[in-house]
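Thread amino acids onto this structure.
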């Protein structure tokens, strides 16, 4: 099904970060002016907002378009409020140890499933690509590539369990350990949504 220009813009900014109107126009195959008109309508709806940044040297300031909180909410949130409430109730009623048990059980199940899906991937490059595909199916809008130094990057432009991760950092720690075990590689998180970044990013290297 063909997506509306507004949805295409939301996805573009979500996956590529803040954008110039001209760059959005190029991506959509429309003029910069048409892109600015679309962005103005989206700004009226509270989905995007312009942020002026200084240009390098003596260039004119540039206006980059960002997603607002409302724009980010257009993407799946994994039943955020319900999840956060359930975690709070679990911790209050049964204690932090019970939550740790739940996280550990989820980690074991997830690792088993990832290993099964990646068992035919021959090398690290194939495993990273396969993991990105799995995470995209799970709603993380993931991508991967190989860096010039031979390492790999796995990025997740969305976190559908962000409320859960905010309520308990154990979910983020668990996912990092799951990636390491599933890939059989060193994995370090270089960007973190919960730390204010627009995405989570992981650098992956052979052990």
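Threaded sequence (207 positions):
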């Amino acid at each position: 099904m063909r997506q509306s220009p507004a949805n295409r813009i939301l996805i573009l900014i979500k996956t590529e970060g803040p954008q110039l109107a001209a760059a959005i126009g190029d991506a959509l195959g429309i003029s910069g002016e048409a892109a600015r008109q679309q962005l103005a309508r989206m700004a009226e709806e509270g989905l995007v907002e312009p942020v002026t940044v200084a240009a390098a040297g003596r260039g004119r300031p540039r206006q980059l378009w960002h997603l607002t909180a409302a724009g980010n909410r257009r993407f799946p949130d994994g039943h955020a409020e319900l999840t956060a409430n359930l975690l709070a109730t679990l911790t209050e009623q049964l204690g932090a140890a019970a939550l740790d048990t739940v996280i550990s059980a989820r980690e074991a199940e997830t690792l088993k499933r990832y290993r099964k899906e990646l068992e035919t991937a021959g090398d690290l490059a194939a495993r990273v690509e396969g993991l990105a595909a799995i995470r995209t199916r799970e709603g993380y809008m993931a991508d991967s590539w190989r860096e010039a130094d031979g390492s790999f990057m796995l990025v997740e432009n969305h976190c559908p369990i962000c409320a859960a991760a905010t309520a308990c950092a154990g979910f983020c720690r668990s996912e990092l350990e799951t990636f390491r075990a599933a890939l059989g590689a060193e994995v370090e998180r270089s960007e973190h949504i919960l730390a204010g970044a627009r995405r989570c990013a992981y650098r992956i290297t052979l052990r």
